[in-house]
Amino acid sequence: MSDTLERAGAAGVGASPRRPDGIPKVRGTFDYGSDLRIDGMLFGATVRSPHAAARIRGIEVAAALATPGVHAVLTADDVPGERRYGLEIADQPVLAWDVVRFAGEPVVVVAADHPETARVARDRVRVDYEELPPLTDMERALDDDAPQLHPTGNVVRHVHIEHGDPDADAEVWVEGVYETGMQDQAALGPEAGLAIPAEDGGVDLHVTTQWLHADRDQIAPCLGLPPERVRLHLAGVGGAFGSREDLHLHVHACMLALHTGRPVRIVYGRHESFLGHVHRHPARIWMRTGATRDGRLVNVRARLLVDGGAYASSSTAVIANASTFAAGPYELPNARIDGTAVYTNNPPCGAMRGFGAPQLCFAHEAQMDRLAAALEMDPIELRRRNVLGPGSVLPTGQVIRGSAPVAELIERAAGVAIPDDEPFGGRDPIELPGGAGNVGRGEGVRRGTGLAVGYKNLAYSEGFDDASAALVVLRAEDGVAVAEVRSAAAEVGQGLTTVLAQIVTTELGVDDVRVLAADTSVGSSGSSSASRQTMMSGGAVQDASARVREELLERVRVRHELPPTAVLTLEAGRVLLDGLPLVEIAGVLDEPITAESVYRHRRVTGFDARGQGDIHVAFAFAAARAVVEVDVDLGLVRVVQVAVAQDVGRAINPLGVTGQIEGGTAQGLGLALMEELRTDRGRLVNASFTDYLLPTILDMPPVVSVVVEEPEPGVPYGAKGAGEPSTVVAPAAIAAAVRAASGREIGRLPIRPDDLVGLTERRPWSAPPPNPDVPFQVPVPPRREPD
Questions:
Q1: What's residue 378's pLDDT?
Q2: What are the two backbone dihedrals, phi and then psi, of residue 739, each rounded to the nearest 5 degrees?
Q3: Model pLDDT, residue 774
Q4: Which residues on adjacent β-strands are paired with residue 625?
Q5: Cα distances (Å, whole numbers) of residue 102 to 107, 251, 277, 470, 683
Q6: Contact residues for 209 (Cβ-Cβ < 8 A; gap 6+)
Q7: What pLDDT shows up at residue 7?
Q8: Chain centre distance of CA 399
Q9: Cβ distance 216 to 232 under 8 Å?
Q10: Which residues of 223-249 are buried (b: 16+ CB within 10 A; e: fewer)?
């Protein structure tokens, strides 16, 4: 509950110092959001709809209120201010009052003096529902006679991109239909928060989140309070991956705290966590790719549809990103790309690592393999002939201004040594595809390799005025120089605290750097998403540190009567003159030095009528080469190795970069082979870690991380975010390797055993028709908030 200081070891940019949160997390002493507690607190619980679509005819709360120990039972009528919120479109009710649009939607919240009492009261609430037929198919949502789930219709957003001559013909065409399932972020730490009412009538909320200020700006209107009376503090986050971008229990905890005058804590269990956060968008993609006979890409025509579920969340940005990446990281003179996000009665979908790029990478890389087969060309050579580079023009008309070492990435990933093909006779059975579930002896096991290339934007797009603020203080403590960093940037496990401390160490030459706990008492740092925090908050901290350094050196010049031309540097807590020690930094800090900075990246634009524009700030690229074994008789897969070559600009923390590549590969493997949320009439049927399958240590192969450093011009230290590209390329590479080993067409992720033994009937694309010569027309919703 206090602003605990985090200390980082003395190591600057390019080193790999020990993370300050590492040891307490390993020992189990780190305070996560679910560990929050304060004297006198109450416990909250949420009544959720069991139906994916229904009208609410009445709510009866008397029995719940009469439960001993219950202090509040609140409905939508008790929301003090605006009754809807949303990350991009304010379309999601704080508590449903007229209709429910997904199974798990919050309807009532309760607070009691014990968590079990809160659950008992929750179960005593009676909601009278009139169940409606749910709209659960994303294609059906586009039909004229489909139920309209929102006043603006069922289309969240449609993006149309035309580049060159979209009708240009090619000598060789290949066509494919691809589908990806709904993946969950599966953060080990569940959603948690503690709201404490304040004397000024406001509230302090300690919560697991990725973006404190965006949360506050949604919460305050719902509470009927000015933003300055809603103060957010970052609680310990046990993983995020996009699931913490949207509000979850935020408004509910604050409402209960303000209503009761007592602190209220809400912690979701695992099942409720699946219901309470957004997921990765399922996607259906039709693509036609044309080339010359010598393997030069000529044209790509693509139609993609993503299921946003019941509410918009970040679907507007996801479909824009996905559309811009549809053609892959290749030179392409002509393209026509249509992307649509729709509302359904499925669980809401929003941000997840890769943000629309993994789904499209799976499709465009499968197309490249199809094209290579049609041309009788080596798939790697086909990619080499077409890769992007500096100065390349994307389908949006954007010119790549920075580094783009795509050709090198392909060479480096493909050049990693492939593990020896071990005989099956001497193997431990656990090392067969399927492990202990394999009932054979390796007779049907085939090995395959596959390569995929992809890319991801850095930071926000489409003209968003992105910014990050930071404050740096340099002071003396017991004769030692100490630097403090104040920032609202969320540490969600990615190692940001360590990176910010490394930047301060580099700029100020001090060993003792302390990063204070994030809260809204300082300016916004934006979200810990979009691979942006190292660039954005790192840039703010670098600039603030530089201002502190200039004032410090000016003090030294004045006190030592040095000329302006004197060369002063900072190192190991000392000021050096011409490389020789002059004075201890602490000796100059009779008064602390403070500097604040707001960092902004270069401005970008939105789409014009043809989908052209300077849409993205910068890009990070990756290539992955997967080696798999497939038991073609049983449909089981073992991933033997994944080699990932990733473009990181400059590695601020090389060990941290490797960790991001390995973690991203694990989530990519999950999407490729096992992770999928399944629904029945919109209801989640596998919302547990028993039934939602995650890669374990037995499923993960060795991951060979190849870090390619080619600094990005115009960004701090030339560093690119490293969190997402491996997740983008790993699923496509694994699918390609499975395709090569099994000889089966792989058109859907995750790959199921039935797909590999011929028991799955391919689902045809029904709408829109897969005809590249028929323009794809969908109703475009008005750009306004719903009534």
A1: 97
A2: -60, -45
A3: 46
A4: 451, 643
A5: 11, 19, 12, 39, 8
A6: 215, 232, 234, 237, 244, 250, 490
A7: 41
A8: 25
A9: yes
A10: bebeeeebbbbbbbbbbbbbbbbbbbb
The amino acid at 485: V
Radius of gyration over alpha carbons of the chain, in Å? 27
Question: Of 249, 262, 212, nearest to 232 (Cα)?
Answer: 212
DSSP strand pairing (70-74 vs 683-684): unpaired
Q: How far apart are CA 64 and CA 205, in angstroms?
A: 26
Size of the chain in residues: 787
Nearest partner of 102 among 223, 277, 304, judged by Cα: 277
Instruction: Return the amino acid letter for 198.
Output: A
Give the separation between CA 10 and CA 107, rounded to whole angstroms: 50
- 3-state SS, one letter per residue, for 154-195: CEEEEEEEEECCCCCCCCEEEEEEEEECECCCCCCCCCEEEE
Calculate the alpha carbon distances from 691 to 318, 629, 687 in Å.
27, 24, 7
Contact 685, 748 (CB under 8 A): no
Handedness of CA 197, 200, 201, 205 (dihedral sign): negative
Strand pairing partners for 230?
203
pTM of the prediction? 0.95
Element (H, E) at 663: helix 654-673
Cβ–Cβ < 8 Å for 432, 567: no
Closest CA to 510 of 557, 548, 471: 548
Provide the token pair at 492.
Answer: 């969600």
Structure tokens at 231: 């103060």
Is it true that the peptide bond before 768 is cis, omega within 30 degrees of 0? yes
DSSP state of 142: G
Helix (H) / strand (E) element for 246: namely none
- The answer to whether residues 358 and 333 touch, using CB atoms and an 8 Å cutoff, is no
pLDDT in tens, 681-717: 999 999 999 999 999 999 999 999 999 999 999 999 9
Token pair, residue 151, equals 């006043």
Using CB atoms within 10 Å of the CB of residue 173, give its burial: 0 to 12 exposed, 13 to 18 middle, 19+ buried.
middle
Q: Which of 93, 359, 159, 355 is nearest to 245 (CA)?
A: 355
Question: Strand, coil or helix: what is 401?
Answer: coil
Give me the residues of the chain with pLDDT under 70, please.
Answer: 1-10, 761-787
Q: Cα separation of 488 and 27, whole Å?
A: 26
Q: Is 698 exposed, middle or buried (0-12, 13-18, 19+ CB in 10 A)?
A: exposed
Which amino acid, residue 145? Answer: D
DSSP string, 336-397: EEEEEEE--SSPPB---TTTTHHHHHHHHHHHHHHHHHHHT--HHHHHHHHB--TT-B-TTS
**Per-position b or e across 739-755, b if 16+ CB within 10 A of its CB:** bbbbebebbbbbbbbeb
Q: Which of helix, strand or coil describes residue 673?
A: helix
Residue 293's identity, in one-letter code, is R
- How far is 121 from 62, CA to CA, in rounded Å? 10
CB 397 within 8 A of CB 612: yes
> Residues 303-336, buried b or exposed e (16+ Cβ, 10 A)?
bbbbbbbbbbbbbbbbbbbbbbbbbbbbebebbb
Q: Please state whether the peptide bond connecting residue 190 to the residue before it is cis, i.e. omega within 30 degrees of 0.
A: no
| CA 756 vs CA 370, 607, 631, 738: distances in Å | 18, 41, 9, 9
DSSP string, 209-244: -S-HHHHHHHHHHHHT--GGGEEEEEPPPS--TTTT
Q: Tokens for 488?
A: 């609202």
pLDDT at position 63: 98
CA 396, 398, 399 angle in degrees (round to 5)? Answer: 145
Of 300, 299, 336, 337, nearest to 321 (Cα)? 337
